[in-house]
């Protein structure tokens, strides 16, 4: 059997090792919290860091806090799709993520899937629709400006 002195030394050595490990882990945690990767600002949204020019598209990106590509991915549309397709996809995704109405009774079957709604996804869908509508309005206004300038140039 080991003497009490050896047991105390083992316990003290183990405590020192554990203490040093916890101290180093704490230092690393503080270092990680203070670290900010290069080019990342406070509330940066993906793609917002590059929207720094005064172009209308960058202004829309900053205003809606969403890039055009992100909005197209959320609503599953392409650049060439019309407003009707955007609204169709928007309605489907909005209803799919809506909470069930008060008249709908939950099923009690064991095999029935649990209906989960997501306010976060709903808000992303709404913001994506707003961003795409703003982009379409911008395109229409630029076409109208081009048409009015060409008709005013020709007497």
Automatic annotation (TrEMBL):
Localization per record: Mitochondrion inner membrane
Entry keyword annotation includes Protein transport: yes
Keyword Transferase: no
Gene Ontology biological process terms in this record: protein import into mitochondrial matrix
Protein name as annotated: Mitochondrial import inner membrane translocase subunit TIM16
Family annotation (InterPro entries): J_dom_sf, Tim16
Membrane topology: Peripheral membrane protein
Organism: Amanita thiersii Skay4041
Cellular component terms per the entry's GO annotation: TIM23 mitochondrial import inner membrane translocase complex
Organism classification: Eukaryota, Fungi, Dikarya, Basidiomycota, Agaricomycotina
UniProt family annotation: Belongs to the TIM16/PAM16 family.
Keywords: Membrane, Mitochondrion, Mitochondrion inner membrane, Protein transport, Translocation, Transport
């Amino acid at each position: 059997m080991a003497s009490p002195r050896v047991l105390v030394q083992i316990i003290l050595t183990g405590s020192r090792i554990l203490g040093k490990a916890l101290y180093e882990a704490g230092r690393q945690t503080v270092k990680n919290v203070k670290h900010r990767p290069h080019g990342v600002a406070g509330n940066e949204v993906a793609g917002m860091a590059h929207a720094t020019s005064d172009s209308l598209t960058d202004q829309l990106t900053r205003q809606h806090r969403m890039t055009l590509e992100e909005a197209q991915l959320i609503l599953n549309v392409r650049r060439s799709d019309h407003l009707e397709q955007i609204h169709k996809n928007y309605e489907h995704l909005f209803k799919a993520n809506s909470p069930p109405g008060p008249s709908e009774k939950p099923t009690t079957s064991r095999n029935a899937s649990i209906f989960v709604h997501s306010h976060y996804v709903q808000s992303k869908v709404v913001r994506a629709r707003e961003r795409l509508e703003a982009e379409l309005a911008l395109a229409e206004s630029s076409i109208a400006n081009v048409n009015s300038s060409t008709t005013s140039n020709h007497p």
